[in-house]
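Just wondering, can you check both lines?
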Amino acid sequence: MNRATRIATGIALAFGIALQACAQSGNVEAGRKAFGKCIYCHQVGPSARNMFGPHLNGIVGRRAGSAPDYRYSAAMKNAGIVWTEENLRAFVRKPGKVVPDNNMRFYGLWSDKEAADLVAYLRTLK
């Protein structure tokens, strides 16, 4: 491979990595809108409380099945995961695949972008 080809390959690789990072980081405002699909079961914000599902304040970095005063399924309590942006994106896309036999009755978001947007929004909630 000549020098020009290596440089072009390196630039293309760096550009691809940057695009992937941007795609996974999500858009907070679009995520706020995507959360509209979640409000029937979950609350967020200063006055959030557990409903049919647990409140989602501080979900990024929280151990699965650990929100106080919420009755989780055994599957969720024993999942042994800490919610990262990556596994949250996967969970909101296909909940039953990430934590089989969980009680969440949601079939998942349609796109990776919508999942990334939702997680970007959830990340802002402490």
